[in-house]
Amino acid sequence: MQRVVLFDTGKPGRDIxxxxxxxxxxxxxxxxxxxxAWDFVAIALAAFAADSHSLRSDSPDGWTREFxxxxxxxxxxxxxxxxxxxxxxxxxxxxxxxxxxxxxxxxTPPVPRKPVKPELDAAVLLSGxxxxxxxxxxxxxxxKALLAVSKLVRGDAEHQREYAERICKSHRVFNDSxxxxxxAESSQRTRSLVFISFGVLSATxxxxxxxxxxxxxxxxxxxxxxxxxPLTELRLGSLSTRTAHPVFLAGVARVLARSGIHVDIENPYxxxxxxxxxxxxxxxxxxxxxxxxxxxxxxxxxxxYRHCGRCVPCxxxxxxILAWGRVEDDTVYVHDKLGLNDEENAGFDDVxxxxxxxxxxxxxxxxxxxxxxxxPDVPDRPAxxxxxxxxxxxxxxxxxxxxxx
Length: 405
Prior knowledge:
By secondary structure, the chain is α/β, with parallel strands linked by helices. 43% of the residues lie in helices and 11% in strands. The chain has a five-stranded parallel sheet, sandwiched between helices. The chain has a two-stranded parallel sheet with strand order 1-2. Strands 3-4 form a two-stranded parallel sheet. The model has no long low-confidence stretch (mean pLDDT 93).
């Protein structure tokens, strides 16, 4: 059993802790937030702390772990009724086994001395990535006054601030400030839930929410990465994040609805490829200036705040900019020439798997797709199937351009 302190730092060297910065930032911004949403943040932080502290390499199969979490919250009766739903949702997100028990005694949200209830239309997650940039530009072009919500990530903070200042009316930046007692697990799939919980909490601070109206949180991600289809039969979808997967978002939506948190999470781009997002963006002038400065790489920190150029998100990014055709991709890629026949380039697993996927999809798309859209929680299967086909077309064009195929 391991103790985790939430919204405080606990005792250094003895306690895992998470969320101390969240408490400080909510006070600083003068946010008036929904108490149930505060519990939701506590649950997300507890799951993330456990995820970070537990190495997958220590599990029997080298990946799947089992978690038993007891979390102190303000409304334990409500959350105990939702424990199984939470466990299923997190199991899909992280491919682990989860069990929750909720007890009284959770922290209450701070009461600001000068309450701020922004008269804005919606909240939007702003990560510093290309998709969230396009989403904010489109929403602003539609006339929406936006509250940008960011989770502090080293290397992206400058982009987050720049995009928020250019596009949004207000900006909230949170740091989960999670500290473990050992080397942290690198996969950290539950970080997605933490980011969403920050967005939900911020959406409940909007003036419309306090007028008993529903609030909207926009999570903008292209449909190909959201579905994250396994590239080959030997690869699992959990090799990449499932932040915007419709099954995961449907689970979160059920949790929010049953807990009485009146926030809708919307991804307007679930039927679009990344290239289509770029081409259809309503503010092409601003996008052309900012696009290649955004961050997409799954190994950005590992490569010294540079794009590796060969991970799946980098390949999707490169394919989308090529398909867009409006600007030259001047992103600095550590591995730029993927077509070279050596271990550092075309022999890299993600490049090889993507090349195999493009060939397999062309030969028999249905067989390649397999059960990627099989869950009953996946809506609009025909539209998603067609979108995935167009995404494969973009990636095929990239591999031909680079001499991989």
